[in-house]
Design goal:
Elements (H helix, E strand, L loop, with lengths): L1 E2 L3 H7 L10 E10 L3 H13 L5 E4 L16 E2 L6 H8 L1 H25 L6 E8 L10 H9 L7 E3 L1 H7 L8 E9 L2 H15 L2 E3 L6 E5 L2 E6 L2 E10 L17 E10 L3 H6 L7 E3 L6 E5 L5 E5 L18 H14 L8 E11 L6 E5 L4 E5 L8 H13 L24 H21 L6 H12 L7
Parallel strand pairs: 1-16, 2-3, 2-11, 3-8, 5-13, 11-18
Antiparallel strand pairs: 4-7, 5-7, 6-7, 9-10, 10-11, 12-15, 12-16, 13-14, 14-15, 17-18
Helix pairs in contact: 1-7, 2-7, 2-10, 3-4, 3-5, 4-10, 11-12
This protein binds flavin-adenine dinucleotide (FAD).
């Protein structure tokens, strides 16, 4: 098995010619720091809204899309499974507006690929949540009720155990629910395609250009990299988990966890045998979630969000390459799909997850209203980053449109404790949840300490789950 930092998707998508690092002083209308989906969609929509604007994007890696945006599971979802949680935080109408915007974002990504000839393997698909333990049955009930009560019952549909098995046979699966208007894609192909379209549209991209300082400047903002500086009227910080770093703008608002994926060799005949040919992407209902999908060449990509909590924003090391977590993911892959016994896992990789206390993305205005920072997707950013990018573009260009007023802009969220308490607490809670969920999977009563520890986030106003 090839276990690397960047993973299979990036390898499969192939190389691109890197843009040179920033060298010298540059002026811009909008500066975007971070060349993942959020930064790239922000730049894209800013250029669409104001074709004459000078947009500069700085990316620290040698190529855009080498972080989580190029390595994720490729589930491209709207946020219907989070509707109940959004409703609780923001109220009915604002929650529905965000869910509708996230729904449109999925369609927009498909249309973008179509219109610009980006072969990102975009495939409309159901997003299915299943239960794999009696304790998890009906985990989607609140989301279903929210859709029903807010007049959008078609967005989430319940599935009986038999209906789940019709879509994908596994001895582990019980009943579930499906969000029918989702999609899957090849993440690194989308990132590279988006980058190519940005360049074609005239966005100036500087790669291998980490922003070392970002501050207010007369009438705007200034970012410095090792080779130069950019002064711009407005700034967008879309640096993912790095926003949690010691001096990062979201150090009190994020937890950096990690997620890892293992990939099988092509197994199209196994997919035929278990009836998993409709392209559905599937998750179980654990907090330390398993997520799995098929690929164009008949592989199964199987991810597990149970990776360790990083101290501060240590986004390298075990946040990216963790053999223990990949081994657990592999074991769970065969538990869920015994039909794979004897078939090989060929690749493993992982990456940091920017988890917010609400498990919802957040856009935060930095004083004095000239820059915005966005993160907190908690492992669900592929679709929503398009929506957030559109919002960031509106804010950076002072457009007072609907996108600028979606409920995740400057929403109140609980704070996380400072380090090292945050890491100590976060790891204890992760281990408590892990033990509780393992007991539940074996239909055992979890031990009282693990159950109590798993309840702590809720008592602090944090939300774990969808
Ligand atoms: C293993 C894994 C599986 C996942 N699966 C899914 C999934 O199936 N579906 C889903 O919706 N989401 C999934 N996610 C989450 C999803 O990948 C993210 O939510 C999404 O990519 C966030 O995009 P972003 O642009 O905000 O952040 P990132 O992709 O993290 O991009 C941030 C960029 O900023 C750059 N950067 C950092 N610091 C600096 C600096 N100082 N200066 C300049 N640039 C900087 C980074 O190099 C990076 O390119 C997964 C994530 C992982 C790790």
């Amino acid at each position: 098995m090839e276990h690397t930092r960047l993973g299979y998707w990036i390898e499969e998508a192939g190389e691109a010619v890197a843009r040179p690092p920033l060298n010298g002083r540059v002026e811009a209308d909008v500066l975007v720091a971070g060349g993942g989906y959020t930064g790239m969609w922000s730049a894209w929509y800013a250029k669409q809204l104001e074709p004459g604007a000078r947009i500069v994007l700085l990316e620290s890696e040698p190529l855009c899309g080498r972080g989580p945006s190029g390595r994720n599971g490729g589930f491209c979802n709207a946020m219907w499974f989070s509707l109940a949680s959004m409703r609780e935080r923001w109220g009915d109408a604002p929650a529905l507006e965000v869910a509708a915007a996230a729904e449109r974002a999925v369609a927009r990504i498909g249309a973008f690929c179509e219109e610009h000839g980006v072969d990102a393997w975009f495939r409309p698909a159901g997003y299915v949540q299943v239960s794999t333990a009696p304790a998890h049955d009906g985990a989607w009930a609140r989301a279903l009720a929210a859709c029903r009560e807010l007049g959008v019952p078609q967005m989430l549909q319940p599935l009986s155990a038999a209906e789940v098995q019709e879509r994908c046979q596994s001895p582990a699966f019980r009943a579930g629910a499906v969000s029918p208007t989702s999609a899957t894609l090849q993440p690194a192909r989308l990132a590279l395609g988006l980058r190519a379209q940005l360049l074609a549209a005239g966005v100036e991209i500087f790669e291998a250009s980490p922003v070392r300082s970002f501050r207010e400047a007369p009438d705007g903002v200034e970012a410095r990299t090792p080779g130069g500086s950019v002064r711009a009227a407005r700034g967008v910080l879309a640096i993912g988990s790095a926003a949690k770093s010691r001096r990062g703008p979201l150090r009190g608002r994020l937890t950096v966890a990690s997620s890892h994926i293992v990939l099988t060799e092509p197994v199209p005949e196994v997919l035929e045998r278990i009836g998993w040919t409709n392209g559905d992407c599937i998750t179980d209902s654990r907090s330390l979630i398993h997520y799995f999908r098929t690929t164009r060449d008949g592989r199964i990509a199987f991810g597990w969000g149970g990776g360790r909590i990083a101290a501060g924003a240590r986004t390298r090391g075990r946040a990216e390459v963790d053999a223990d977590v990949a081994a657990v993911a592999t074991a769970h892959l065969y538990d869920y799909f015994p039909a794979l016994r004897g078939r090989r896992v060929t690749h493993a990789w992982g990456g940091p997850i920017d988890a917010s206390p609400t498990h919802l993305p957040a856009v935060t205005t930095l004083p004095p209203h000239r820059a915005w920072v966005a993160a907190g997707y908690t492992g669900n950013g592929v679709g929503p980053s398009n929506m957030v990018g559109r919002t960031l573009a509106a804010l950076a260009l002072d457009r007072d449109d609907d996108h600028a007023h979606l409920a995740f802009v400057d929403a109140r969220t609980p704070r996380v404790p400072p380090e090292p308490f945050h890491w100590l607490g976060g790891e204890s809670i992760r281990l408590g949840i892990l033990r509780k969920e393992e007991a539940e999977m074996q239909n055992r009563q979890p031990d009282p300490v693990s159950s109590a520890v798993a309840r702590v986030p809720g008592l602090l106003g944090f939300h774990i789950g969808r």
